[in-house]
Amino acid sequence: KVGWYNAVLQPAFHLPYPDDTLAFVVLSTPSMFDKALKPFVNKERLKIIRDPVDQCIAHHLSRVKEKFPDQRVDVMFDYEMLPSRKPKFLAQTAAHVAGAAYYYQRKDVKLDPWGKKKIFGVCIHPKYGGWFAIRGLLLFPAIQVPFLEQPAPVDCVSTEEKRIELLEQFNFHWQDGRYRDIIEVKERYSEEQKAYFATPPAERLRLLGLSQ
């Protein structure tokens, strides 16, 4: 429910919908690369003009909207910004309040070792660890769900030591991706997918056989 999200954020970040409005957080799992992105690129090769992943997600979410012709469905993407340069929605907070993934933050560590350093939080999924992404939000303004019960996200990094290790790795060594394996995972990105996301965005089109 939108109210779960708004309840944990300052008013500047609130979504402008009634508290009982139904929303879905959209995640992409490791298999998205082979099952969605590559077929999309093969089919839409000539129409890809910006980030292929963003266009692929937009394509699939527009198809979801088509399934509800009688409903208004508002879509927000993780990369969209407001004119104020604030993100349209805070993806990790949305995933946490929806019970999709646990958003580990500095406040989850009792004995904070970082002093004045800025420490960013990170979401961990109980099945995919850090090998997933939060892609968007689907909102159904006409559907109110006062009866919906809030599921708690799975606290899969439960020890103080592991949480410190996770935040250290994410903040200071994120390039090596070790933070993604902070727990035992069921599935991770393929080597091809890792190479794709490790490539600077400007060069990714070439990797997919698309030239600018």
UniProtKB/TrEMBL annotation:
Gene: Mmachc
EC number: 1.16.1.6, 2.5.1.151
GO biological process, one term: cobalamin metabolic process
One GO CC annotation: cytoplasm
Listed name of the protein: Cyanocobalamin reductase / alkylcobalamin dealkylase
Keywords, comma-separated and alphabetical: Cobalamin, Cobalt, Cytoplasm, FAD, Flavoprotein, FMN, NADP, Oxidoreductase
Stored Pfam families: MMACHC (PF16690)
Family per similarity comment: Belongs to the MMACHC family.
Broad class of the protein's primary localization: cytoplasm
Domain of life according to the entry: Eukaryota
InterPro entries xref list: MMACHC
Cofactor(s) of this protein: FAD; FMN
Reactions the enzyme catalyzes: apo-[alkylcobalamin reductase] + methylcob(III)alamin + glutathione = S-methyl glutathione + cob(I)alamin-[alkylcobalamin reductase] + H(+); apo-[alkylcobalamin reductase] + adenosylcob(III)alamin + glutathione = S-adenosylglutathione + cob(I)alamin-[alkylcobalamin reductase] + H(+); apo-[alkylcobalamin reductase] + an R-cob(III)alamin + glutathione = cob(I)alamin-[alkylcobalamin reductase] + an S-substituted glutathione + H(+); 2 cob(II)alamin-[cyanocobalamin reductase] + 2 hydrogen cyanide + NADP(+) = 2 cyanocob(III)alamin + 2 apo-[cyanocobalamin reductase] + NADPH + H(+)
Record-level Gene Ontology MF annotations: cobalamin binding; cyanocobalamin reductase (cyanide-eliminating) (NADP+) activity; demethylase activity; FAD binding
Subcellular location field: Cytoplasm
